Amino acid sequence: MFKGSFVALATPMLDSGEVDYESLGTLVEFHINNGTDGIVSVGTTGESATLPFSEHIKVIERTVDLVDGKLPIIAGSGANSTEEAVFLTKQIAKAGVDGFLSVVPYYNKPQQKGLLAHFDAVASASDLPLILYNVPARTVLDMHDETVIELSEHSNIIGLKDATGDLNRLQSVKANVDSSFMVYSGDDATACEFMCMGGDGIISVSANIVPKQMASMCRYALNGEYENAKAEDSGLQPLHELLFIEPNPVMPKWALYKMELIKSPFLRLPLVLPELNSQTDIERELVKLGIIRN
């Protein structure tokens, strides 16, 4: 259903802190023109943690309008409160999205049985497909493979975004779920190897900056052209690393600003602009890749 390179789209903002919908249109056009296979709207990279519900929903609605059916849109609808995640899912379903990405509840550290109940409730709130999102580095909780396998039996749960970077888990899940259940990489540094081992796609931060290359790598891997996929990825490894030297989306927004795709690198507190050395490092890599001029 959803295969290939999906960008975890940044939410551009003005220096005033308001969402910059004009730049959002620029970003959407950038991805349509550069082969991105789909958009994830208002996930981690979209600063979901600091957008109130009304704004969260509005950004997704505007993204749907801007895409105009040219790409599938997966909407972030996760929360650490099941009631809130269900509410968001029901509201966003009205916007015309194609599916949802729902993160493991953070901070309150539920038991695995709690995860089963949480995701059953969220997946049952809409008839649209839902992708689970496991990112222990942010949630401080790991969703066990056994939990994913059990949740895969829900008719609306169609995939997993795995951001653990542990490639063994791809095989562990794939071996025990229906062939239609999809597993996506959420870790750009290992995404190529993940795809070559049988992954169905990526939900990528790096695709904000190099959409054409990330989409190309995925297509090669999905077609079994593994050497071509690895060749496409090899030159991107420094970029993957640099985009995470400060908390996401600090570095992607700085890069997009230097690429003149957004008017401001503004982030909502508690995130702030990158350190000067981080700015210099990412700008040097963008020059090296031919993305900006020195």
UniProtKB/TrEMBL annotation:
Location of the active site: 133, 161
Quaternary structure and partners: Homotetramer; dimer of dimers.
Q: Where is pyruvate bound in this sequence? A: 45, 203
Its recorded name reads 4-hydroxy-tetrahydrodipicolinate synthase
Instruction: List the top taxonomic levels of the source.
Output: Bacteria, Pseudomonadati, Pseudomonadota, Gammaproteobacteria, Alteromonadales
| Enzyme Commission identifier(s) | 4.3.3.7
Recorded hits in InterPro entries, A to Z, give:
Aldolase_TIM, DapA, DapA-like, Schiff_base-form_aldolases_AS, Schiff_base-form_aldolases_CS
User: Which top EC class applies here?
Assistant: lyase
Record-linked SMART domains: DHDPS
Which PANTHER family does the protein's record reference? 4-HYDROXY-2-OXOGLUTARATE ALDOLASE, MITOCHONDRIAL, DIHYDRODIPICOLINATE SYNTHASE
Chief location category: cytoplasm
Q: Which organism is it from?
A: Glaciecola petra
Compartments, as annotated in UniProt: Cytoplasm
Molecular function (GO) terms listed?
4-hydroxy-tetrahydrodipicolinate synthase activity
UniProt-annotated site: Part of a proton relay during catalysis, residues: 44, 107
Keywords per UniProt: Amino-acid biosynthesis, Cytoplasm, Diaminopimelate biosynthesis, Lyase, Lysine biosynthesis, Schiff base
Please describe what this protein does.
Catalyzes the condensation of (S)-aspartate-beta-semialdehyde [(S)-ASA] and pyruvate to 4-hydroxy-tetrahydrodipicolinate (HTPA).
